[in-house]
Amino acid sequence: MTVTAMRARELGRKSVVVGDQVAVVGDVSGGPDALARIVRIQERSSVLRRTADDDDPYERVVVANADQLVIVTALADPPPRTGFINRCLVAAYDSGIEPLLCLTKADLATPEEIIETYADLELPVVTCRRDEPPDPLAARLANRMSVLIGHSGVGKSTLVNALVPGTNRAIGVVSGIGKGRHTSTSAVALALPGGGWVIDTPGIRSFGLAHVSPSSLLASSFTDLVPGAQTTARPAAPHLSCPPPTAAPSTRTSPPATPNPAASPRTDACWSRAPTRACLLIPGG
Ligand SMILES: Nc1nc2c(ncn2[C@@H]2O[C@H](COP(=O)(O)OP(=O)(O)O)[C@@H](O)[C@H]2O)c(=O)[nH]1
Ligand SMILES: [Mg+2]
User: What are the sequence ranges of the domains in the chain?
Assistant: First the structure.
């Protein structure tokens, strides 16, 4: 049953986001003219935030209560951008949401290089192509609240349409590198047939991390690295202001296809001295 509800004015304009659990009063019969009212928002188990860029103090809440962040990256058309993947990983770790790397358009290019790039992370990876049912992804989404995030044109809506029969999310045309048309304009949560939810989001060009500091990230997700970080002399930094890297990260296997506007010196090699997982949080194109 679908209940249409409007937000009580007291809650404020930006108070309810996709994924929220809410209390409603009024006509909850779900009839064509029924209108209920959202009066309360339940405490959120997670909040995925981003800022427009790394200097932007204004945080947008992308979704609430997600427990899995599906980083959707095309293997080609548009080419993979590791800088964007890294930023999504930071956002996921910071908010306590499990990341999953979903590589699309496997009919156009092979996934080995990108899988190798992230081999040291405990990062699950699935590959998809539109001419095959997305079964490996569906298995990972079952009974969870997952949010798909990725540049426009990587195939998010195509996936959602395959995962949720009867859905008709608009499919866009890739018009240039990282410039797929923004065909989906708002995030939408859809119930999966086998249980769980998937949230399709509009393609985003940047994933600002002004709200994440190295210390908060270490404390929330990399507790094993905290002792090492403490013995490394560096100025106290409220943001991701680390010295630029002195050596190219060894994890990069190829130069970025294009200059990456999402990459910023702020995130350069912030955790480059930490082994394995953390060393990958480096912008790469
Ligand atoms: N070759 C190929 N094209 C795909 C695949 N998945 C999606 N596309 C195409 O990529 C374009 C963008 O897809 P869309 O689902 O709108 O991407 P979104 O912006 O991330 O929602 C469309 O032209 C799709 O037909 C795939 O697996 N292989
Ligand atoms: Mg879309």
Answer: 5-41, 47-200, 214-279
